[in-house]
Design a protein that fits this description.
Largest sheet: 8 strands, mixed
Helix content: under 10%
Low-confidence stretches: 212-227
Number of helices: 2
Radius of gyration: 18 Å
Distance between the termini: 43 Å
Oligomer: single chain
Number of domains: 2
Strand content: over 45%
Mean pLDDT: 87
Amino acid sequence: MPLATADVRTSPLWVDGKKVFQVDVEARTQKGPDFVWRMRDSIQSVFEAGTFWPKQFVFRQRENSRTTDTNALYNQTEKKWTVARLRGKEISRFEIDSGDTLDSITATYLVRSLDLKVGDQLRFYAFGGKNRYLVTLDVVALERVTTKVGTFDAYRMAARMQNLTNSRHADRMRRATVWISADYRRLPLKLQSQSFFGSVYLELVKEEVSSHSASLQNPVAEPAWKN
């Protein structure tokens, strides 16, 4: 039974004379599951092309009656994130000083840019707006994968995520299996992961290519509560 869908849009833009990518993700549960758990989440990530230096990460969560807005700005000079997080009416502010920590979207695109081979292991730090994780990816195999988009040669990758922020969860290793195409596009084809209620399975069902390009005059409007 399909529970939710997500649309991912990637746009090449220009900010202060530099080419960047803006990635917008819109996720929503379908009508049936809405009666049990209604989700309308959106993520926006902006990062430099080529260098993959992050610039901004915004995560807006609308899950049943709970609302959470996370706005994170990356200071390339100081190599740190400044995060403002509004949950309901409660605001929390904190910094992440580790200069090599990427937001989850930028980290995903960085992995897609790499020249992979079976046997490789990738390790990096990532966060989704609150917790910081050590992510380990092992390229396990090259195999044929069929989705609604087509049949591909794909890398099967075993992912492990360790929570570095919450010491109570540090020994809980989240695991997932990811398949990405072995061609130059590195399309994310499938993902399977365990969750507290069973397992989650994601599959790419449609791909579109657009020639749209623009200048990013005002990346992600800053919420009034940020300052």
